[in-house]
Amino acid sequence: MAMQSKLAAGEPFPQITVPLSGGGSAELGRPACEEADWRMVVVYRGKHCPLCTKYLNQLEKYWDRLCLNRVDLIAVSADSEEQLKGHLEKLQVSFPIAYGLSEAQMKELGLYISLPRSAEETDHNFAEPGLFVVNQEGKLHVVDISNNPFVRPDLEQLVSGLEWIKNPDNNYPIRGTFR
């Protein structure tokens, strides 16, 4: 059985650049807006996944709270630019969406990778859901990786938790770093 390496909490987040919807590119782990000092990276399966569409649309409801807490947000999949353009019709989000995540980048992030069940599903291997929160030092502060679309962080709990973590009065360290 092949071993797959996972990113460890407290490690520097890898430098991965992906193309953005509407042009340009973004480094996944670096906040794009100058008001933010943290970055949340949400990896989703792609246009073919209705649960991903629902999750991203729900995430939009938390975008303001994330911004208030200086947490920038980006979502990314392995979809092509054309697939993303088709998906944008179903997405009602204002945060940036990136595309073209390569298999090498998926592996670098420690994501589970699935093969399409049929050509109707999609035409490429794709990442299963992952959620990463990168702190102001560029280190992985929160990580959640799943091998299927049915297991994802509850958004209210996640955003409330980030609000608590970012409150300096709580002095909350990165958890799960013991090796």
UniProtKB/TrEMBL annotation:
Keyword tags: Oxidoreductase, Peroxidase
Domain called Thioredoxin: residue spans: 7-167
Signal peptide stretch: none
Molecular function GO labels: peroxidase activity
Keyword Cytoplasm: no
Domain of life: Bacteria
Keyword Oxidoreductase assigned: yes
Pfam family, one: AhpC-TSA
Name used for this protein in its record: Thioredoxin peroxidase
Organism: Microbulbifer flavimaris
